[in-house]
Amino acid sequence: MKLAFFITAAVILLAACGQSSGTSNDGRLTLEQAPTDVAAIYKSNCIRCHAIDLSGKMGDVTNLQYVHERLSEEEIIERITNGGKTMPAFKERLSEQEIAALAAWLANQQ
Q: Domain Cytochrome c: where (predicted)?
């Protein structure tokens, strides 16, 4: 009986170790592990230009897969809020809380 318990516990622990933190094996950010609310914001506002895989394959649109290596959370908030080069400003479309949640997810990938 004790052996069955330990085997079950070991299986559960090993399964938990393999869960993703939101990035692929190569450190690339993915949408799959984003919090539900953040994924919804991204799908409603960002996907058209930055693509489902965050690659930004449309013209000179920024690839977001490694944005956490290039920009701080504050810089991402600024970019989403006020736009940049070809990116429109989202301060009229998204609340400060939505922008903050999206920026936190983009910036805090390890």
A: 22-110
- Which residue's structure tokens are 């190569």? 26
> Residue 7 belongs to what H/E stretch?
helix 2-17
Q: CB burial class (10 A; 0-12, 13-18, 19+) of residue 19?
A: exposed
Asked if 22 and 42 touch (Cβ cutoff 8 Å), the reply is no
Can you identify the CATH homologous superfamily of domain 21-107? Cytochrome c-like domain (1.10.760.10)
Interval 15-66: pLDDT, tens: 333 334 455 556 677 888 789 999 999 999 999 999 999 888 777 678 898 8
| Cα–chain center distance at 31 | 5
- Do 30 and 24 contact (CB within 8 A), yes or no? yes
Domain boundaries, the chain: 21-107
